[in-house]
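**User:** Everyone, produce a chain:

**Assistant:**
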Amino acid sequence: MSDFNSRFQHIGLIAKPGDSSLAPVLEKLRRFLVNMGLNVSLARSAALALDQKDYLPSKAELARVCDLTIVVGGDGTFLNAAREMAEENTPLVGINLGRLGFLVDISPERMLEALTAILQGDYIEDRRFLLEARIGEGQHQLALNDVVLHKWNTARMIEFETRINGQFVDSQRSDGIIISTPTGSTAYALSGGGPLLEPSLDAIALVPICPHRLSNRPIVVHGDSEICIETSGRTDFNHVRITCDGQSSLTLEEGDRLVVRKYPKPIRLFHPVNHDHFNLLRAKLGWGGHP
């Protein structure tokens, strides 16, 4: 019988796909959990890295049977897991084997110490909302970082109109627009000149990509807003794509419009009790600390 918090008796493991260098960390992690009397289930990516045959067929299934899921990799691995597991209420913990991560914030060196505390109920819970991008009744995708409408296979700018809650905002010519959650404000939106949003804010940032008019500036709207974008002018809809978290794409047909809303189910992210978002910002962005 485990001494750990009774809520976390069944643990899921997800790994960055196709990276065999993760195996030593994964094996150390799995052995630690099993030795503590916990049940461990593997996603396919973790099973392949560990050369195991038994795994659950999907991350959604993993989320349904596990009390806690550990993601080993980088922020990209975490983003993929969060989208696929969004229907469930299973908390996620990130072990960072990529570059400095905002979502996977526990180093392999501190992994066992941090997990011991989390499994005993000593953690900070961080709820992050996702966006849902819809095109008509058929196409839809989730995004934890951002939904990006952008030009595709052309050197020309595209033209589109933006409406928020049915109210016309503007018509702009640019390379596209980034619709970002607070989580995504440190990603592509930051590169585009958008604001940094504190993760708990109920807000969405709209950041133009290389706009023709320099007066087109980023704006921040309430998180419950419905954002509708429709191509206009002489823009060919074949020259437009919608990308979610830089990992999945949607296409437009003639007359289609992109509708983006907050997804009703947030994800739950667990951090160690000493987690400091601004410390991560200082390290990632090279800000000055105390003299």
Remarks:
- The mean pLDDT is 93.
- The two ends are 49 Å apart (CA to CA).
